[in-house]
Amino acid sequence: AQYVWWPWAHWALAIFCYILAILTYIIVPSELSKAVHPEGKTDVIGSIIGITGLILFIYCWNEGPVVGWDKPYVYGVLIVSIVIIAIFIIVEMKIEEPIMPLSIWSVAGFPGVLGCMALGWSSFGIFIYYIVQFLENIHHTSPLLTTAMLTPLVIFGLIATVVVSQLYGRIPAHYLLMAAMIFF
């Protein structure tokens, strides 16, 4: 494991996620809970359009600093991603059961909560990327040692998940959000 190329850390995580997805399909019961509307429809088209727009948007912001913003394909992808996101918004306004009803933006506090979560997960993603780069390229640790050094993140992530699930009904949500932002 110590002789593999550093992107394998991310590829291994992707493989693990696929395995979890398959296990979830096998393990999670197929009957619907009372909270799920069996007659509800999934907005597949909106999901595909929205995810495509976001992937392209994220791609260009990651590619631009690497190859330079003067490359036409970088800002071309940015323009295409913005157009696709605009199409997503139009589709969501027209469809009967949208994946994300636009009325949700008028709920008090929703835009702020979404902004906090987006910034928190963004900072976490940046941290994961750069800590792997720092450990392997500057400290010259092996991929296996890097993985071992990051194991506490998994352990504390699992602990946080269990703790928050137990505290959610007992503590106001804004305190949990504040704690999440502190520990991101």
TrEMBL record:
It is found in: Membrane. InterPro entries: MFS_trans_sf. GO terms for cellular component: membrane. Keywords: Membrane, Transmembrane, Transmembrane helix. It is a multi-pass membrane protein. It comes from the Eukaryota. The keyword Protease does not apply. This is Uncharacterized protein. Its main location: membrane. The chain crosses the membrane at residues 6-28, 40-61, 73-91, 103-132, 144-168.
